[in-house]
Amino acid sequence: MDSQKWSSHIVMSLTIYVTIKYLSHGGINALQFATSGVLLLEGLLLWLFTCRCLHCSADLHHIGYRPNTSSGVYSILLVPVALLGNAAYIKDAQEDDRNIQEIWLSLTSVFSVIVWLKFEAVNRMFFLMISMAFIFVFRWLSVFYIFTFIIQWKGITLIPMFLQKTFTLGEVSILLQLVSIWIHRFFWSFFQNSYLADNMFQLFWFDSIFVIAIVLATTFVCLSKSYLSPIKFMATYIVTALLALLLLFQIFNEDPISWFFNFVFGGCVQIFLMSSWAILFTLTIVWTAFYSLTEANNPSSSKIKDIDKFSVRKVFHILILLVYIPGLLMHIQLLLIASVVTFGVFVILETTRALQVPVLGNQLHEILKVFVDDRDQGPIFLTHIYLLLGLSLPLWLSPNLYTSIRGWNEMFSGVLSLGVGDSVACIFGSKFGQIYYPVGRVAEQYLHRVAEISF
Asked: What pTM, to 2 d.p., does this model score?
C-alpha cells in the first residue's frame, strides 16, 4: 500500500506541474482556467481516495478485478495530463479545438470513476444529472460526453464481470478513456476532412476499418460460440475481412489490396524495413520456441527466480526496439500500419488461446504460459499485448499522426520509457541493485512523462 501512496504522490505532483506549465503558456482565459481547475480537483479527490484507501484492492477483488495488486486508479489522470501538456504547444485553432474536446472527454471519464468509487448507486443518477447540466454550458460539448460518462461508468463494472482477474481498475479506466478518444478522433476525421493530410486519407481509413473489423469479428466469435469449431472460427474472420475489403474498395475507389502492397513495398526504405522486420520476426519465433521447449523438457527450470524470468523476457524488449526505432526514424506511416496489423494478429491469437479453439488453442497456451507474470491471472494473457500497446499508443494517439507535422517527442516516449527505461531498470537493477525501492519503476515512467511534456 505504501508504494501505491507514493505513486499517487508522483502523479499528483506531475498533474500540478503540467497544469502550471499549461496556464503559464500564453494568456489565461476562462476555458483554460476551468479545464485546469477541474483537472486539479479530480486529481485531489483521487489522491485523497488513495491516501485513505477508499478503493482498496481487497474490495475491488470481489467484483472481479485483479487481486493482490494496486488498483492503479490514480493513473487515469495521465491521459488528461498528457493531453493538457500537448495543448500548450498547439497553434492551429482547429487542432486546439479538437484537443480541448479530448481533454474534456478524459476529464469526463475521470469524473465517472470518482462517482463510481465514492457514491452509492442511489446518488449516482444525481451526479449524472449534474454532469449533464455542466457539460452543456460549453457550446462545443455535446451528448457524446454523456455517452462517455455512461460507457466509463458501466464499463468499470461489466468488464471485470466477464474477464475475471484480468484487469485492475486503473487499467480498465485508461482503456475506456483511450477508446473514447479514438472514437472521437474517428468522427472528427470523418467530418473534418481538412484534418487529414493529402496522402493520409487511405491510411486513416485502412487502420480504422481494420481495427473495427477485428473488434466486431472477435465479439461475434465470443457471442456465437463459433470458437468451438476451428472452421467456423476462421470463417468468421475471413468473412469479416472480405466485408472490410469491400467497404475499403468503396472508400478508396481502387483495389485496397493493391494499395496495401504498393504502400508497404513501394520504395527502397519500405523494402529495407520490411526485410529487417521479417528477420527480427523469425528471431522472435525461434527464441520463443527455444525457451518454451527448454521449459517443457526441464520442469525444474520452472522454479528459476523471477528475476531470471524477467531478464529472459527483456529479450523481447530488445527485439521490438529494433523494430520501432528504425521505423520511427525512417518511415512512421509504415510503422503505424505494421503496429496496427500486429495488434490485430495478437488479438486473434490471444482469442484462439483464451477460448481454447480446437487444434491451436492448447498449443498456443503451452507456448505462452512460460512468459506470464502476476498480471496474467485472468483468462487473457496481457504481457505481450501490453508491450505492443506501450510502444504503439504514443504513436497511435499522437495528434500529428495523420498530418504533415512530425511530432517526434510524443512518438518516441513509448520507446524511451518502456523499451529502454523499463528494460534497463529490470536487468541492471535486479543484477546490481542493493536497495529495494517499491515504486522505482513507476516513478521512472512518470518522471519520463514530465520530461517528455517539457519539450
From this structure: 0.81
